[in-house]
């Protein structure tokens, strides 16, 4: 897999194809004592609100998890018809969960079944040819980072890249911080019965994108798995 550090400006209007966003916001957060992790506040906003703001240009925001107060205004700059028709995309039926304030909430089967069933549930609601697949606990992810992922993925179109994922400073892929061709994920999920995201997504050989972490520790891949992580995120947000 190619590793790259793309250069890109803020925002994602520069020719990036229409995309939907899938945020995985289920699970029990056992290492946080059962806390509602997506709803935990960092810098005055919930974690899931911060992630949703990074994909504000998405034509459709899909949350796999319990309904909550979260609004999304679909991108006015994207071509909706292109997003819905998406050449080659096997779109799901338009029947299914209802949108609340512009957000589609759905749940995995079985509930709490892990990221693969959650991805399957989210993908069923995707209409666009591309999607962003994200965890709900990324306090420092921004639209600029989403831009960088799309630029890297599109740069690999000659070699039919399935997508692009962030890698951390140790070179580890962050499977829930990436962008993907919808068709590639649908193909990968066909017949897959495993529970590992790595085994599902790794064989797709996405472009690996390394974005140097800023000196303040607000790395785009930083997630809040523990109370210490959450405390660190709050401290770093105060210093922003």
UniProtKB/TrEMBL annotation:
- In the UniProt record, does the keyword Transport occur? no
Q: Which UniProt keywords apply?
A: Cytoplasm, GTP-binding, Magnesium, Metal-binding, Molybdenum cofactor biosynthesis, Nucleotide-binding, Transferase
Comp. bias (Basic and acidic residues): 69-83
Where does the record place the MobA-like NTP transferase domain?
A: 21-201
Q: What biological-process GO terms show up in the record?
A: Mo-molybdopterin cofactor biosynthetic process
Name the Gene3D superfamilies for this protein: Spore Coat Polysaccharide Biosynthesis Protein SpsA, Chain A
Any one GO MF annotation of this record: metal ion binding
Ranges for region Disordered: 66-95
Q: Which SUPFAM superfamilies match?
A: Nucleotide-diphospho-sugar transferases (SSF53448)
What Pfam families does UniProt report for this protein, alphabetically?
NTP_transf_3 (PF12804)
Instruction: Name the domain of life this protein comes from.
Output: Bacteria
| Keyword rRNA processing appears in the UniProt entry | no
CDD domains on file: MobA (cd02503)
Against PANTHER family, the record matches this protein to: MOLYBDENUM COFACTOR GUANYLYLTRANSFERASE
How is this protein named in the record? MobA-like NTP transferase domain-containing protein
Show the taxonomic lineage: Bacteria, Bacillati, Actinomycetota, Actinomycetes, Streptosporangiales
């Amino acid at each position: 897999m190619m590793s790259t550090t793309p250069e890109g400006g803020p925002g994602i209007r520069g020719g990036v194809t229409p995309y939907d966003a899938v945020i995985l916001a289920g699970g029990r957060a056992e290492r946080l004592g059962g806390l509602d992790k997506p709803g935990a506040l960092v810098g005055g906003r919930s974690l899931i609100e911060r992630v949703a703001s990074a994909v504000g240009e998405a034509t459709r925001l899909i949350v796999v998890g319990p309904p909550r107060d979260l609004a999304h205004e679909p991108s006015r700059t994207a071509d909706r018809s292109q997003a819905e028709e998406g050449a080659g995309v096997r779109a799901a039926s338009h029947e299914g969960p209802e949108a609340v304030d512009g957000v589609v909430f759905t749940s995995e089967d079985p509930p709490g079944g892990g990221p693969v069933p959650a991805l399957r549930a989210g993908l069923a609601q995707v209409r666009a040819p591309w999607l962003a697949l994200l965890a709900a606990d990324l306090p420092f992810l921004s639209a600029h980072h989403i831009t960088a992922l799309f630029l890297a993925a599109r740069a690999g179109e000659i070699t039919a890249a399935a997508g692009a994922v962030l890698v951390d400073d140790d070179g580890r892929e962050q499977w829930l911080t990436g962008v993907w061709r919808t068709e590639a994920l649908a193909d990968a999920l066909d017949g897959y019965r495993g529970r590992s995201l790595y085994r599902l997504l790794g064989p797709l050989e996405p472009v690996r994108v390394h974005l140097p972490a800023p000196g303040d520790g607000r790395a785009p891949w930083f997630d809040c798995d523990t109370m210490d992580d959450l405390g660190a995120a709050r401290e770093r947000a105060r210093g922003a």
